């Protein structure tokens, strides 16, 4: 078996490598031009992201061409070339599909503005595509790894023997993986039924926050103080929670004011209207002040107002609460909450004063002795 290559084989190798390099350059140049054109769905940096998968694909193709040369096969093992080429094909195609899926998702999502005030439809599309993208990528990777493992004869035989002799173990593993599979199915269910969407305002575990990320197995909620609450996807399927932006972003805000019974409610209503009309936080829809409760010490009044979204409603509530308290302090300080105590005088004795000076029987006895 010769250990060197003749001149024809060397020329064949050089020409094959040169052809592969030229093919890669042409494909890369075309993809970069298509990415710069606004008429195509390819992003601007698509050529840069597909560069490595394309290079791996061309390398796998070159190895396949090498197999056609008998002189080269006398030096290099044919099985090694074939197996390496197969793995490179699987890796390049898998990587390329993932890049294409991400580019397609990015192209679709550019049509929807998440920063708009009424972004319910955009949040719906973002949620669906983000979750579905992760599901599809997971399935592609799983399928690619399975094909790669099946390309090894030793692993294939071991796998077949394990499948035929470990039925009970498979059942046990299935029960053990039931919770994990349930979590995956919950992620897919969220993508279609959408009890939550990206950027939804929710109250979970007593915390107010926004849905920041939705993954296959867990959801990240960004709390108002910048903490992150990580919950499994099954939480939003099995447990109750508050979704403040389920159907629309607008929301009602409430402010409770506690005053004395002497407070003039009509004056409070006029002041509430004046406050709302002089701020851009109010959307001009709801403006109500009602007495909602009373007790033996004070009166509870509720101011109800509307805003375009929950952060704005929070700022509006803070403003109205402060302004109403200042209004009562400056104009009706006697109407602030107070505790009343009624003092009663001690009753006067009914015995005349002269009777108190009369000597009693004991005094007369003392004088006689």
Order of helices and strands: HHHHHHHHEEEEHEEHEEHHH
Through-space gap between termini? 157 Å
Count of DSSP strands: 8
Q: Gyration radius, to the nearest Å?
A: 40 Å
Counting helices, strands and paired strands, the structural category is: alpha+beta
Strand order, sheet with most strands:
4-3-2-1-5
Number of helices: 13
The average pLDDT value, as a whole number, equals 77
Shape: elongated
Largest sheet: 5 strands, antiparallel
Question: Which residues sit in consecutive blocks of at least 5 with pLDDT less than 50?
Answer: none
Our estimate of the beta-strand percent is 5-15%
Query: Helix share of residues?
Result: 55-70%
Short summary of the structure?
The protein is about 55% helix and about 15% strand. By secondary structure, it is of the alpha+beta class.
Describe the structure.
The chain is an alpha+beta fold. Helices cover 57% and strands 14% of the residues. The protein has helices at residues 7-36, 46-66, 70-73, 78-109, 120-150, 153-165, 167-176, 178-193, 235-238, 265-277, 310-331, 353-357, 361-368, and strands at 201-204, 207-214, 218-223, 228-232, 242-243, 251-259, 287-294, 299-307. Strand 2 (207-214) and strand 3 (218-223) form a beta hairpin. It starts with 6 loop residues before the first helix and ends with a helix.
């Amino acid at each position: 078996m010769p250990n060197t290559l003749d001149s024809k084989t060397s020329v064949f190798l050089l020409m094959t490598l040169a052809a592969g390099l030229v093919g890669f350059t042409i494909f890369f140049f075309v993809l970069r031009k298509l990415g710069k054109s606004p008429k195509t769905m390819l992003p601007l940096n698509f050529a840069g992201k597909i560069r490595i998968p394309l290079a791996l694909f061309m390398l796998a193709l070159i190895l396949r061409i090498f197999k056609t040369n008998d002189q080269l096969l006398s030096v290099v093992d044919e099985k090694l070339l074939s197996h390496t080429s197969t793995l490179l094909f699987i890796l390049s195609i898998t990587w390329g599909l993932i890049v294409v899926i991400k580019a397609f998702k990015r192209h679709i999502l550019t049509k929807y503005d998440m920063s708009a005030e009424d972004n319910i439809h955009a949040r719906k599309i973002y949620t669906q595509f983000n979750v579905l993208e992760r599901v599809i990528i997971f399935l592609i990777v799983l399928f690619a790894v399975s094909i790669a493992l099946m390309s090894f004869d030793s692993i294939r035989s071991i796998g077949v023997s394990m499948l035929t002799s470990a039925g009970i173990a498979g059942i046990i593993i299935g029960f053990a993986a039931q919770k994990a599979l349930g979590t995956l199915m919950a992620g897919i269910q969220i993508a279609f039924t959408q009890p939550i969407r990206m950027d939804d305002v929710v109250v979970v575990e007593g915390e107010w926050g926004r849905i920041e990320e939705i993954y296959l197995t867990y959801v990240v909620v960004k709390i108002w103080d910048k903490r992150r609450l990580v919950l499994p996807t099954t939480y939003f399927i099995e447990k109750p929670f508050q979704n403040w932006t389920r159907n629309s972003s607008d929301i009602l805000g409430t402010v409770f004011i506690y005053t004395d019974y002497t407070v003039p409610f009509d004056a409070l209503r006029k002041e509430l209207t004046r406050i709302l009309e002089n701020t851009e936080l109010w959307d001009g829809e709801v403006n109500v002040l009602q007495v909602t409760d009373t007790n033996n010490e004070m009166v509870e009044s509720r101011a109800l107002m509307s805003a375009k979204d929950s952060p704005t409603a929070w700022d509006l509530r803070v403003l109205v609460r402060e302004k109403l308290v200042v209004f009562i302090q400056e104009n009706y300080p006697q109407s602030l909450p107070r505790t009343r105590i009624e003092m009663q005088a001690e009753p006067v004795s009914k015995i005349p004063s002269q009777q108190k000076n009369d000597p009693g029987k004991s005094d007369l006895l003392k004088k006689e002795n």
